[in-house]
Specification:
Number of strands: 9
Distance between the termini: 37 Å
Number of domains: 2
Largest sheet: 4 strands, antiparallel
Radius of gyration: 25 Å
Helix content: 55-70%
Structural class: alpha+beta
Shape: globular
Length: 385
């Protein structure tokens, strides 16, 4: 009989609940981060208003290529989705701006209203100083305030796209298994079934055990495919790809916090006793100065922190290195056009090789995050021998 996806015990409701929880929590942490910045109000009048003539002259000059600026703009989040640049014309998809100001209430408009340094109802996208890339509210007297920002940014829209894609794939597969349980899988079923069996047998069962793995399998499958799909979407240079969602530390923090919460609440008596009184450790490491208990307790918080940083750093580093190869074309092209053409062959070759390597990294990072989460669950639920 063909394999039924974890006996169809991970129902559609569980899938929708976990994905919705991931989305809501990620969005909440982003809003919280913006809210914390809200308190950093400055009352200084910016000196840039006295340099209009210099700015006008500078705008007329052709800007030199800055690889650092280009890389950062592609890696960080944005209030619009940049598609391409033709000459000096930027083609982007505007996204909704949702702001709350303590002075003027709620404001909803499209990000195109803030393009090219324009302001809208006193709001503008700052491009200098500590507020660079942030939306600020500027009063007539020059005072600057940071509103609460609940906008649908590039990463938020990418989160919508990936969750919709995951729901469409797995709800359709689940429906086929329920309606035709005795028919051999084909199409998308046959493509994803080996991955599902791999996570079930080599990750969940091996790390948690035969008796308890089913309880955690829905979460493990969700985070694996969520990270894997978003890693792949980040490698696609055209819309709706190109967003650095899994390279956003707020998203990886939410995933790590889910693992931390499940591990903490799943911990049995044996888990907590071993943490305080680790067996096989000399007594002088536990009493009178509790060195090992302190190390073990610190490990409870260090483990999710490492999960968060590892995924964030590896995905972001891959994007930065790839963009660095592309930057070499323009850097050498400014020196000599012929040299730029020559370097472009080498840069593109390295970029293609890196893209192939990133396909492997996309799977490895999803696998490592899922495996470590399963190991933590197994450690928390292990019974005393």
């Amino acid at each position: 009989m063909p394999f039924k996806i974890y006996s169809v015990k991970m129902t559609s409701k569980k899938t929708i609940f976990i994905l919705a929880l991931l989305f809501v929590t990620s969005f909440s942490f982003r809003a919280l981060a913006n809210a914390e910045e809200h308190n950093s109000t400055t009352t200084e009048v910016e000196e840039e208003h006295t340099a209009n003539n210099e700015d006008a002259e500078h705008a007329e000059q052709e800007e030199e290529f800055n690889p650092g600026t280009m890389i950062i703009e592609h890696v960080i989040d944005a209030h619009d989705w940049h598609i391409m640049t033709i000459g000096h014309k930027h083609i982007s998809i505007p996204l909704p701006i949702i702001l709350y100001s303590e002075h003027s209430g709620f404001h909803v408009f499209m990000s195109s209203a803030l393009a090219h340094g324009h302001s809208h109802n006193g709001f503008k996208l700052h491009d200098k100083g500590e507020y660079k890339g942030k939306i600020i509210e500027e009063k007539e007297n020059g005072e600057i305030y940071k509103p609460y920002d609940f906008s649908i940014t590039k990463n938020v829209l990418s989160l919508f796209v990936s969750i919709s894609l995951l729901l469409w794939i797995f709800l359709s597969i689940s429906k086929k298994y329920k309606n035709n349980p005795n028919i051999a899988p084909k199409g998308m079923q046959s493509l994803l079934e080996p991955l599902i069996i791999f996570i079930r047998d080599d990750v969940a069962k091996a790390s948690i055990g035969e008796k308890k793995y089913m309880k955690y399998l829905p979460f493990l499958l969700t985070i694996f495919f969520f990270i894997f799909i978003n890693n792949l979407l980040g490698l696609i240079p055209i819309f709706p790809g190109g967003a650095n969602l899994t390279g956003n530390i707020a998203v990886t923090m939410v995933l790590a916090l889910f693992t931390f919460a499940i591990t903490t609440f799943s911990g049995n008596k044996n888990y907590w006793v071993h943490m305080v009184n680790t067996p096989g450790v000399p007594w002088w490491l536990k009493f009178p100065i509790p060195l090992m208990p302190i190390v073990e307790i610190m490990g409870v918080f260090i483990k999710p922190f490492v999960l968060m940083v590892r995924l964030f750093a590896n995905i972001t580093a891959g994007h930065i290195v790839g963009l660095g190869f592309i930057s070499l074309i323009f850097i050498f092209g400014e020196i000599n056009m012929g040299l730029g053409y020559g370097v472009s062959i080498v840069s593109i070759a390295f970029k293609v090789f890196l893209m192939v390597l990133e396909l492997l990294v996309a799977f490895i990072q999803a696998y490592v995050f899922t495996l470590l989460s399963a190991l933590y669950f197994g450690m928390a639920t292990e019974e005393s021998h």
